[in-house]
Amino acid sequence: MITQPAISGYALQLGDDALVMAQRLAEWVSRAPELEEDVALANIALDLLGQARALLSYAGEVEGRGRTEDDLAYFRDEREFSNLQITELGCRDFGEAIARLLAFSGYQFELYQRLQHSRDEILAAVAAKAVKEVAYHRDHATQWTLRLGDGTEESHRRMQAGLVRVWPYTDEMFRADPAGQALAADGRAVDAVDLRPAWADYVTGVLREATLTWPETAAAPGGGRQGRHTEQLGHLLAEMQYLARCHPGARW
C-alpha cells in the first residue's frame, strides 16, 4: 500500500537534490573561467531552484504538517536532508564542477524522462518541465567536458582529475531504495537502479570523444538518502539558511 509519507519523502529527495545542487552551482558566479559561464551556471542553478521549489512545495502539501517550501529549505537540520552526497561536494576546481554537472545532469535526464509518465500528476508535470531543462544542463556539461578533455595538456589533466574526485559519489545515484522501488512498482516513481545503463552509455561516449578515461575508483559510502552526509553539507546549510534563521517569519 502506497502511503502519503512515502510520496512526500520521494518528492523531498528529488527536491533536496535540486536545492543543494543549485546552491553549489550558484557559488561559481563570479568565479567561472569566463563571464558567459558565470551567466550559464547561474541559469542552470535557477532551473534547479525552480525544480526544488515545486518538489518541496508538493512534499510539504502531501506531508500535511503545514510546512512550506521555505520551511523545508531553511528550517531543517543536516540529518533531515535526503539529497545525494554528490550534490553537496564543494568543487575546488572548474574541472571538478563540470565532472559533477555531467554526472548529475545525466542522472536527472534519465530520471525525469521516465518520471514524466508517472501516475502521480504533480510529479509527472514537474518532470515534463524539468526534462527539457536538464537536457540543456547535460549538453552544457558535455560541451565543456569535450572542450577541456580534448584541449590543452593542462585542461585535460584537470578535467581527468575532476572526474577522479567526483566519480566515487556517482554510485549512490543508482542504489536500490526500497521506498522508491515500491513507488516505482505502483507507477508513481522511478527505480534508480534502472537508470544506470543509459546513463553509463551516454557518459562513456562523452569521455571517449573527450579523450578522457572512465575513473576506476571505489564507491563512496553514500547514505545521503538516509540523512548521512559529508561534513560539507553542514557548511553549505549554515550559509544558505543563515538569514532565514536569524529573521524567522521576515517578509520582504
Tell the overall outline.
Answer: globular
Q: Based on DSSP secondary structure assignment, what is the total number of beta strands?
A: 0
The number of helical runs is 10
Q: From the alpha carbons, calculate the radius of gyration and give it in angstroms.
A: 18 Å
Query: What's the CATH H-level superfamily name?
Result: Ferritin, core subunit, four-helix bundle
Query: Order of helices and strands, N to C?
Result: HHHHHHHHHH
What fraction of the residues are assigned to beta strands by DSSP? under 5%
Structural class: mainly alpha
CATH architectural name: Up-down Bundle
Task: Give the low-confidence spans.
Answer: none
Number of domains: 1
In whole angstroms, the N-to-C terminal distance is 43 Å
Describe the structure.
There is one protein chain. By secondary structure, the chain is mainly alpha-helical. Helices cover 65% and strands 0% of the residues. Helix 1 packs antiparallel against helix 2 (35-63), helix 5 (94-115) packs antiparallel against helix 6 (121-149) and helix 5 (94-115) packs across helix 7 (153-166). The radius of gyration is 18 Å and the shape is globular.
Kindly summarize this structure in a few lines:
The chain has one domain (4-246): Up-down Bundle (Ferritin), CATH 1.20.1260.
Keywords:
252 residues, mainly alpha, Ferritin, 10 helices
What is the topology?
Elements: H1 4-26, H2 35-63, H3 69-74, H4 85-88, H5 94-115, H6 121-149, H7 153-166, H8 178-185, H9 196-209, H10 231-246
